[in-house]
């Protein structure tokens, strides 16, 4: 199997597994960052979530694997082009690696919060604030991935106009939401709608790019 095909499958796999995990989290009552819940309600929710967190979290490492395969396939397909194509592809690849590292911390923090919620609220307050800000800042890395790989794909003729517009718009919305991250430390939701629309654009963009890789 050619690596570009594997990368295309990885991109689609990332989206499918990510949507399933988030659906399970929402169904279990997990307070997501920027959900707007106060600290007391968050502590009460996390106090009974240790076991509920474990099952979906088993699948989380697969999302990092799939996304890395997708990004590496894109970098391979876009590397060595004319002009700044390779440089933009590296910007996109760096964004993916940074988002994987950041989300590893966010996932680990959820288990830390579940433990802290059962033993003391002081620790929980700090962990919840850290998780909220990390979640917000992570959107900057998604914006980097979108911007870099979109610009490189346009240069290579791999990205059609509609996908380029989607990529640039989603990157702008995610970066705008990331700038508000310090104001979400208490669990607020400033510019949350911009981040949500940007995230939906991000997963749609991944599926479109994955199909392009599969058809190469």
Automatic annotation (TrEMBL):
Keywords: Membrane, Transmembrane, Transmembrane helix. This is DUF4386 family protein. The chain crosses the membrane at residues 6-26, 58-80, 86-106, 161-181, 193-215. The keyword Transmembrane applies.
């Amino acid at each position: 199997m050619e690596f570009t095909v594997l990368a295309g499958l990885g991109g689609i796999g990332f989206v499918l597994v990510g949507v399933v995990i988030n659906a399970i989290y929402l169904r279990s009552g997990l307070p997501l960052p920027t959900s707007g819940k106060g600290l007391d309600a968050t502590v009460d929710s996390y106090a009974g979530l240790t076991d509920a967190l474990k099952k979906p979290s088993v699948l989380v490492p697969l999302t990092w694997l799939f996304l890395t395969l997708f990004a590496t396939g894109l970098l391979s397909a876009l590397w060595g082009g004319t002009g700044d194509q390779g440089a933009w592809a590296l910007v996109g690849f760096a964004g993916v690696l940074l988002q994987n590292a950041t989300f590893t911390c966010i996932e680990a923090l959820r288990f830390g919060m579940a433990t802290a919620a059962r033993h003391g609220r002081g620790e929980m307050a700090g962990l919840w604030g850290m998780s909220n800000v990390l979640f917000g800042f992570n959107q900057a890395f998604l914006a980097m991935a979108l911007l870099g790989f979109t610009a490189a794909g346009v240069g290579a003729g791999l990205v059609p106009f509609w996908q380029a517009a989607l990529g640039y718009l989603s990157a702008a919305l995610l970066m705008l939401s990331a700038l508000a991250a310090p104001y979400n430390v208490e669990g607020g939701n400033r510019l949350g709608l911009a981040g949500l629309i940007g995230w939906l654009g991000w997963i749609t963009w991944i599926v479109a790019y994955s199909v392009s890789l599969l058809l190469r």
